[in-house]
Amino acid sequence: QVQLVESGGGLVQAGGSLRLSCAASGRTFSSYAMGWFRQAPGKEREFVAAISVNGGSTYFADSVKGRFTISRDNAKNTVYLQMNSLKPEDTAVYYCAARRFSVTTTRDYSYWGQGTQVTVSS
């Protein structure tokens, strides 16, 4: 069982930056691939970024490529999403997710956090 807690959301102006963190419980964090997803009002939850168990591979949605980066610190059981050049269309609740071993860009993750709100004003 893995519990995930996101933090770092908030209100930011367009062009600004935020860094989201996701802290995971448990002693096997390094065996979990991690993903970030987001869900805007009235829309489906969509993939944002993912990272492999050792951080060697990362994946991004086309809409955030070049603006967002994902990283992890296995010693701290934490995954990060650095968001730069934010746009109003990035406004959403952001969720982190975990699954054993193999990374995926689909929603096929076993564990989900409660989400953190990101609001980008124009």
What's this, in brief?
The protein is an all-beta fold and 122 residues long. The protein has strands at residues 4-7, 10-13, 18-24, 32-39, 46-51, 58-60, 68-73, 78-83, 92-100, 111-112, 116-121.
Describe the protein.
By secondary structure, the protein is an all-beta fold. It has no helices and 11 strands. The strands form 2 sheets. Strands 2, 4, 5, 6, 9, 10 and 11 form a 7-stranded mixed beta sheet that branches. The radius of gyration is 13 Å and the shape is globular. The protein starts with a strand and ends with a strand. The mean pLDDT is 96.
List keywords for this structure.
122 residues; mainly beta; 7-stranded mixed β-sheet; 4-stranded antiparallel β-sheet; 11 strands; 0% helix; globular
What is the topology?
Blueprint: E1 4-7, E2 10-13, E3 18-24, E4 32-39, E5 46-51, E6 58-60, E7 68-73, E8 78-83, E9 92-100, E10 111-112, E11 116-121
Parallel strand pairs: 2-11
Antiparallel strand pairs: 1-3, 3-8, 4-5, 4-9, 5-6, 7-8, 9-10, 9-11
Average of the residue pLDDT scores: 96
Low-confidence stretches: none
Work out the radius of gyration. 13 Å
Q: Decide which structural class fits the backbone.
A: mainly beta
